[in-house]
Design a protein that fits this description.
The chain is α+β, with helices and mostly antiparallel strands and 61 residues long. Helix content is 30%, strand content 28%.
Length: 61
């Protein structure tokens, strides 16, 4: 079974580069404190790592 992660937007994307804003949007996050669940595959983990200063990530069981 693939592990899942919950990603929550905890900081605003105002003032961030367009690439960072696009990464947050592609993760499915729109507003502050919104959360989404994803499978923990390398592409999603890479996106989370690139915007780690804006999001909080936790592993689900």
């Amino acid at each position: 079974m693939a592990s899942r992660i919950r990603v929550t937007l905890v900081r605003s994307v105002i003032g961030q580069s367009k690439d960072k804003v696009a990464t947050v949007r592609s993760l499915g996050l729109k507003k502050l404190n919104s959360s989404v669940e994803h499978d923990a595959n390398p592409s999603v983990l890479g996106m989370v790592a690139s915007v780690s200063h804006l999001v909080k990530c936790e592993e689900l069981n």
